[in-house]
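**Folding the chain**
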Amino acid sequence: MMNFHLVFDNSGDSIKFDAVNPDIVEYYLDCVSTTNHFWPENSRFGHLLSEQTNALHSLLTKANSWLEPLLDQRLSIFDQTQYLDQDVLNLLHAQWVALQSKTYDINKKRQQFNFAGLAEDIHNMYPDEERYPKLMDVATKLGYLHDYDEINHKIHFLEHLFSKMRFMCSNQWLEFENIFGKDRITNDICNLYLPFRHLGRSQWNKFNNFDQELQYNDENTFNQLLKFVELNLLMPQTMPYSSQYLDWCNRKNKVPSGELIPLGNIPDLYDNVTNYRIIVFRNLQQQNKFSLYLKG
């Protein structure tokens, strides 16, 4: 198994990959040998990561300010980098879901707060025969529901931020001849890959956008290799094509192909995904570029 490493400038932080297509990795690194320093296409990406972890923390803190008096419960609170831990995100999501089914005991809370304040306001919102409204209905009447729903959105947004992170190695347009077959282009979930960023439509894209007769001459299915790579900290998976697409390729005498060329997968990602998220987070905050190096 051939390995290669992604190494950040200045910090020296490294991520190891098992090469999926060793010959393509070698060829591509030779192509970019003079420009082998990659930075985010979105220059604000490091700031965005920090912004979103802080936003989630603020939403949780704000929710606890009304959850505790209403339900005597709190959502868990963590330090900033702990919100990059998938186990923490899974815990928070489970807590967020569980609270959706909770009820508010109007009479109990009136007694607890001596028939005054917020508990009495809530009592006045409901008819006497309704003593156990859903917590989320109470939150809606009090104007808290939007911020509470935002917790769920921030959790999923943070998870999504670590997928399809696009980097480039030049400010100029760079392209290199693709000497490999179209069968090397897939739709697999891969940790580091060459994304579709070409001028034109891929064969897969034309099929999905109803140009199934190939009427228009704008197909470019990785005719070139470009200056872009994407880093994806999701679990690697092989993604087979649909029977409909395979039938269409067969009828059109086309090699089935997707929209990315896999380069490599992280062998210990399952056990260390949080560490890799922190590495990416810390280096992008510091605006460190990375380079790719072959290892035996």
User: Anything to note?
Assistant: The chain has two domains: 3-38+169-295, 48-161. The chain has a mean pLDDT of 95. Residues 139 and 145 are 5 Å apart (CA to CA). DSSP finds ten helices and ten strands in the chain.
